[in-house]
Amino acid sequence: MNSKIKNLLRAFVLMSLAPLSQADVLLKDTLGNTIPFSSLKGKWVLINYWAGWCKTCIDEIPELNRFYEKHEKDPVVLFAVNYDGLPLHKQKKLIQKFNIRYPSLATDPAFALGLGDIIGVPVTFVINPQGELANTLYGGQDLKTLDMEIGKG
């Protein structure tokens, strides 16, 4: 193999191994919108992983709805992510069934955002206004615990 091809391959491998910066991450919601993660700078970002078979996940949805509605005009965003990575039409059915009123992401951003492996649900990742992971909340959350998280900043 000539040296140009070797160098190109080496560059390609290095580029594919380099993690994306959060500024490059595009979040896609279930309505077809694309949200650049960089556009969320200056806001608290909460990403909640849930599943339709998880009782605790379902039980916390009304609290997450309350949190979302309370902070709709604040620099706070909340996203749902279906842990099972279901096809979009199945996700939409569950979103409607469980009355999830906050935005849902169609694709899992964990890898792109460097959140690590999601080993169980529910789990909520709290990202501060500087774009840094501030906390990982395991188990069901309520309005009070979520308000405490964003009040830390």
TrEMBL record:
SUPFAM superfamilies, A to Z: Thioredoxin-like
Signal peptide span: 1-23
One Pfam family from the record: AhpC-TSA
Keywords of this entry: Signal
tRNA processing as UniProt keyword: no
Alphabetized GO MF terms: antioxidant activity; oxidoreductase activity
Domain annotation Thioredoxin: ranges: 16-153
Regions crossing the membrane: none
Name used for this protein in its record: Thiol-disulfide oxidoreductase resA
Originating organism: Fluoribacter dumoffii
Gene that this sequence comes from: resA
